[in-house]
Amino acid sequence: xxxxFKLRPYQQEAVDATLRHFRQSDESAVIVLxxxxxxxxxxxELARLARRKILVLTHVKxxxxxxxxxxxxxxxxxxxxxAGLKRKExxxxxxxxxxxxxxxxxxxxxxxxxxxxxxxxxxxxxxxxSQYQRIIELLRQQNDALKVLGLTATxxxxxxxxxxxxxxxxxxxxxxxxxxxxxxxxxxxxxxSYMINxxxxxxxxxxxAAVAQYDFSALAQDRFGEYAEKDVNQLLSKxxxxxxxxxxxxxELATERQGVMIFAAxxxxxxxxxxxxxxxxxxxxxxxxxxxxxxxxxxRFKQRQLKYLVNVSVLTTGFDAPHVDVIAILxxxxxxxxxxxxxxxxLRLDDGKKDCLVIDYxxxxxxxxxxxxxxxxxxxxxxxxxxFCPGCGFANIFWGKTDSDGRVxxxxxxxxxxxxxxxxxxxxxxxxxxxxxxxxxxxxxxxPHCGGENDIAARNCNQCHKAMIDPDDQLRDALKLKDxxxxxxxxxxxxxxxxxxxxTLRITYHGEDGEELSESFDFSKPAQRIVFNRxxxxxxxxxxxxxxxxxxxEVLEMQALLSAPDFVIARKQKHYWQVQERIFDYQGHYxxxxxx
Length: 596
Known about the structure:
alpha/beta; 10-stranded mixed beta sheet; 14 helices; 30 strands
């Protein structure tokens, strides 16, 4: 049976990747396609090919309607189960449903389904009690081989990081040893730049906000990287002149433009913005807008009866108005996924549309073409950097810093994300082992019992399984002792005590308040060389180029690349302090040197 519609090449590749994966495995999978790539076509084709019952879930009625309409437009018949659309049909082979409506009527979904497709699947949390997980659990009871496929443009959540574990290009997502991802595999991914360069999406024209910008940098963020509405309102209330100047510039830039979407920070902010725009050309949509009014306003905007659409957090997904050619961002966010969703509203193709102006007035400093690294940005100066694994050679992408020549001078990666093929990769399909994550660690906690390297947050050694001392407990216990000294190490200096370059190396640890502790390693003694290389050689150049030093002189020549510990603990002997512990890669409650 031929398809009643023609897929673009990448859409066909996504469909083929899905069929290939689910023929070999029942493990959940994700397809990553940018906003505007036509996910509904991929869903329609997969639904058309299915021989048994499938359920297509999403979180807003607009997307339920959109996906269903696309499927129906090819002469295929499917059901709709959505309270918002006043339809509850569940007897068709293919059902398009809202997750809220299905979760509220689980007793009506006791048939055997072969596949669940989740659109905008970055909204799925790992919690077993969530609506998505409850639905999947119920359907698994009827069919333990249930396939679960997610589609999204942005496969990460701020508090979780990446929503999947394994990527088909041979790497693992996440820097620690965490396993609790809602999906197992990413089986197909297409970057935004691919779509723009090949003319499938409109080019975003990033405009410098020359008039004024808000500065949200002083506000406290929650664990999702967002800000308290009260704090934002308080800041914005002091900058009414800035808001007016911004809107005047937006109107000026939009003189020859078709449709303008303005993303406000709060409801009060959105009302203020709306007050500066021409009343007869402007609509305001917030979470509190009556649903009928909202549908009417959006319809008028899509029909170009209104030019400006101001909204607060409600039109970032499931909204499709191809004529939009100006995006003004007046809200702060640390989420690259949210930022991409916002900009994506203006990237759909339309007749006569050459580009889409994107103006960021909130100083978000997000690189639209560079997705999340998967961890929250450790500081404002961080940028994505490439770090090669000394163990397997994989090119990791971590947050980090570079010098003026582009060389990586610091990075915050913990474990290599490369995937190593199992030894029995030539075995028959279905009997092959799963690829293993490379076990090389750039930051690690060493087990005092067996010397094994563990994630810096590990409680028990992954090799000997014994409990490891928590660094906070080490510091707390040392601080209680009268004969112990703890310094926050701000740096180290090296010297050779005798002037001989192959003899004794002296390391001086400098505390941030001027304290000093020293220890020596005699390189003529193999045991001391081994200890030095285990502590410092292994961590050389941020662990990017571990080195085995044989002479003190070698270390002196390269001392700039030697990693310093975060804390040093010493105990008082008769006439001197003896270094007993060096805590590297510290993450805990205590402040490190020079951190404010």
